[in-house]
Predict the structure.
Amino acid sequence: MSQLENVNLIKQANVYFDGKVTSRTAILQDGTKKTLGIMLPGEYEFSTALKEEMEILSGKLEYKLSGQEWETIEGSGVFYVPANDKFQLKIHAVTDYCCSYIKE
């Protein structure tokens, strides 16, 4: 989906890694939480509480899930991160993303 409708938007930005990764939180009517953001070139590691769907809208990056090999996305793509886990990112070009938090 290219746009989110009927959402509550949290105005306060989520800022990580000295501003190199930022996002805004949107809450859908059914309670689903999504963050929409930008990642600047660099290397990052994130932890998860819930399962996450990382939808890359544009950019170039490598990602590594626990116990797996590095994978590359150039342009757009999607990857999933299990709950209570970590993942690593190598961002090679400004990357636009939408992260969906999945309650199982």
In short: The radius of gyration is 13 Å. Residues 8-77+84-102 form a domain with the Jelly Rolls fold (CATH 2.60.120.10).
